[in-house]
Amino acid sequence: MESLLIYGAYGYTGERIARTAVERGRSPILAGRNPEPLHSLAADLGLRSRTFALDDDIEPQLAGIETVLNCAGPFEKTADPLVEACLNRGLDYLDITGELPVFERLARRDDEASAAGTTLLPGVGFDVVPTDCLAAHLTSRLDEPTQLSVAISATGSLSGGTIKTLINGLGSGSAVRENSHLRSIPTGSKSRVVDFGEGNRTVISVPLGDLTTAYHSTGVPDITTYVAVPDAAVHAIRLGRPLERVLSTTPVTRLLTRVVDRFVDGPTDAERAEGGTTIWGEAWSEPTGDTVESVLRTPDPYDVTVEAALAASEATGEVDAGYQTPATAFGPDFATELPGVSREDR
Ligand SMILES: NC(=O)c1ccc[n+]([C@@H]2O[C@H](COP(=O)([O-])OP(=O)(O)OC[C@H]3O[C@@H](n4cnc5c(N)ncnc54)[C@H](OP(=O)(O)O)[C@@H]3O)[C@@H](O)[C@H]2O)c1
Q: Pick from 245, 179, 244, 172: which is nearest to 207 by CA?
C-alpha cells in the first residue's frame, strides 16, 4: 500500500504531482486544509484524503505514512509544523520549496533528523534539483574547488503560488555565501554576463536556495546564484532599491497577494510546453587556477518539479537519515535522469 502523503495536493503544483502519480499507477494519500477542493480532487483521482490545517494536531493525521511531500507554499509558513510532526514520528519529509530561509532552518536540524531516523530533503522541485546536481557535477570535475556560480535563464509563466512566494520574499534583498557564511547584499548589486549558449545575457544575483544546498552538496565556501534579466531591468532594480522597502510592507504584499488570487491560475499545458530553462554553472579552484563550466537544459520548471518530486518520493526510503540535498541523496546525475534534461560540459 502506498505510504506517501501529498500535503497541499489541490494547489496548482500539488495537483499535477498527484495526477501524474496516478497515471503511473501510484496511489498517494492527498491532504490539505480545505475539504472541498481536496475531496473533489480525491474523488476525481480515486484516492483517499485527509483534511487538516497546520495548526491542528498533525501527528495523528500521519498514521500509516512513511513519507510526506509538502507542496503547500509559501513554505516559510508550512514547513516547520510538518517537519516537527515528521521528526516526532520518524517519517521522511520532502518539499518543493525554493526559499533560502527554509533550507537554512532545515539544515540546522540535521542532528535531530539523524537521531529521529528522518530524512529531511527540501527542494525536490525545479528549485533546487537541477542547480544542486549541476553544482555537484561541476565540483566533481575540479581538484580543490573554492568558488561556485550558478545562473538560471528561464522562459514561461508562473503559477499564483509561485508569485505569492516571490511577493513574500520582496524587499528581503539578496545574499551570497562567502567564507562559508551567508552575507546579505542589496538586490542587483552583483551582476555579470553569462554565455548560456544562445547568446550572452546579463544576470543579477538573487538569493536562491542553492546558497545553502550547494554549500552542503559541495563544501565550496564561496557561492553566488543569479537569474537572467533584461538589461533594462538591471538598471531599474538598481535605481529602485528604495522601492524594494515599499513593496515589502505588509499592506502592499497583502494587496498583491489578493490580486494574484483573483487573476492568476497558473500556466496552461500549452504555456508549459513552450517553457524551458538553461542553467549555467562555473566552478573555480583558487589553488590550481582551473575553471570549469557546464550547462543544463530543462523543460518547463513545473514539469521538472513534477518529475523530480515523484522520483525523489519513490527513492527517499533508501536515503540516509539527516538533512539531505537532492545531490547528496541521489547523486549529481539525478537531474539528467529526469525526462528532457540534458547537460553539456565546457
Ligand atoms: N521548487 C520549485 O521549483 C517549485 C515549483 C512549483 C511551485 N513551487 C512552490 O510551491 C508552492 C505551491 O505552488 P503552487 O503553484 O501549487 O501554488 P497554489 O496553486 O497557490 O497552491 C498552494 C497550495 O498550498 C496551500 N497552502 C498555502 N498556504 C497554506 C497554509 N498556511 N496551510 C495549509 N495549506 C496552505 C494552498 O491551500 P489553500 O488553497 O487552502 O490556501 C494550496 O493547496 C509555492 O510556494 C511555489 O513557489 C516551487
A: 172
Dist CA 131 CA 140 (whole Å) = 14
- Most confident stretch, 106-115, 186-195, 266-275: 106-115
Q: Count other Cβ atoms within 10 Å, centred on residue 168.
A: 19
Task: Give yes or no for residue 54 CB within 6 A of ligand 1.
Answer: yes
Between the CA of 293 and the centroid of ligand 1 the distance, in Å, is 34
pLDDT in tens, 5-24: 999 999 999 999 999 999 99
Under 8 Å CB-to-CB from 206, ≥6 apart: which residues? 174, 187, 225, 226, 227
Residue 90 near residue 116, CB atoms below 8 Å = yes
| Coil, strand or helix at 244 | helix
Outline where 48-109 has alpha helix (H): 75-89, 100-107
Nearest Cα residue to atom 26 of ligand 1: 72
pLDDT tens sequence across 154-202: 875 555 555 555 555 556 678 999 999 999 988 767 889 999 998 888 8
CA of 11 to the centre of ligand 1 (A): 6
